[in-house]
């Protein structure tokens, strides 16, 4: 069966009559609403797969073996991440290893194999196209695990798989995905071909007339064209208006104490709409607010009570707090080139060797959504969304970061996570503050600092 050079179903000839699709290829629906399908054929010691989905610009689709053959498990999974750049029409298929449920930071998290070990991209891109709004990517991989970052594709039994659809971040790497495998999904890759998808449409365009030669000559029938399954064309996506989250003014809180905790990004109206960056589904909450802008005054001392996690062995639960001139964050995993021009004003200490180590480390507190209830995008305001969250804290003590901005501090700096990118937002540094007293517009959690941490200083 010809599957490579003529393998794209989206309007490109496959050379297989539509009536015989069911006897030639496998197909399974992964997400009906987005018309996300996986199609495949086993060929010798390799497997050719095709992912088809209705994606928005800048989104990826991922599919591959689960981290556990018997159940769907993201950690340890070996997916291919595929997308088509809608500007250049160039296709991509990258081999990933999912070390943890967090963004790729250094050698931990959800990372391309190539970021972890050289020459370990075991995915071979065969073709890619955009057809009628569908992203279609065809790729090939070995049935066996090609290296220590891969998992084998089983052909003698059912196997659990994982899939996801989400936005690419600024590095063209995966970020938090709103659509993903729920429950256990198993596929028998070695089965006889079964087409468990809606049947594609036939090409309704008439074939070009052949030149007239001999009257008795019979022209060959044109090969059938397999198109993606029909899905109603979506309406143009309206620009998402970010939630109106009040800034923390220069005169509040009166004691200059801020509580830095973790929480969800708030869907499309939250982090991404406010900052213009793609996050990982978690972000800083300051005094119970999702990434508010903070206004501070030069010469005044501020204290940040940090509850972002203290276990570096679990990247998804470890978020040291620091203040920097860098709008991206994640200083710990930056290259030497990326660190050029980056200043850190609080949250780190320099060791005798000259290395910087984070001191903004404490127990983990999470603003947690209810397990049942509306999704974040269904809330009309942040205030309504905030009332659906519950603060859950682990045992342990918070960390403390102190900071006194001075005349050398830029007018705009950022509070960030030392080990992950794009979790925080802006701090506006002012020369003076209108000393007007204002009614407290927000309830701020009051927590006494532990005696052994109250005097802890970070090196500026």
TrEMBL record:
Record's protein name: Uncharacterized protein
Phylogenetic lineage: Eukaryota, Metazoa, Ecdysozoa, Arthropoda, Hexapoda
